[in-house]
Amino acid sequence: MLVNLLVFNLVRHVTDLQVVRASVIATVVAIVFNYVGFRYFAYRDRDKSGRTRELVLFLLFSAVGLVIENGVLYVATYGFDWNSPLQNNIFKFVGIGVATLFRFWSYRTWVFRALPPGEAVADAEAAPERERDERSRAGQRVP
Question: Could you give the CA distance from residue 11 to residue 23 in angstroms, rounded to a whole number?
């Protein structure tokens, strides 16, 4: 959310782009940050097989979130003529909130799926051996 709002306001102040176009740029930048954050931090323990499928679903659900988020801003700006900088930020924030609810559900349900219980246990038990093999291949001393 912070990246999204910062980029949105930066683009609005530095360029002459219309509000929704600036918002779309900010949302795309935030989507890139979100993928990195989710894959390598929040859901790093989730199933890592099928990265192509994961990325396609992530981008699909992110695009739906982009439409939701910027649709709220579009309606407020062009439908109700609420177009001051404060109003733009308020409705950008509201749009982010609504889209975040959708994205959270879809990412957790469809994109970053949990490993089945049996696989999760087997994966955890195999982790030390995998680490030892990786160190051995890298030429590091293996205890």
Answer: 8
13 half-sphere exposure, CB direction, 13 A CA radius: 9
Tens of pLDDT, residue by residue over 109-140, are: 888 777 666 655 555 556 667 666 666 666 66
Q: In degrees, to the nearest 5, what angle opens at C-alpha 48 toward C-alphas 1 and 30?
A: 15
pTM for the model stands at 0.73
Contact 72, 94 (CB under 8 A): yes
Sequence letter at residue 107: Y
Judged against a pLDDT cut of 70, whether residue 52 lies above it is answered with yes
**DSSP characters over the chain:** -HHHHHHHHHHHHHS---HHHHHHHHHHHHHHHHHHHIIIIITTTS--S-HHHHHHHHHHHHHHHHHHHHHHHHIIIIIS---SHHHHHHHHHHHHHHHHHHHHHHIIIIISPPPPHHHHHHHHHHHHHHHHHHHHHTT----
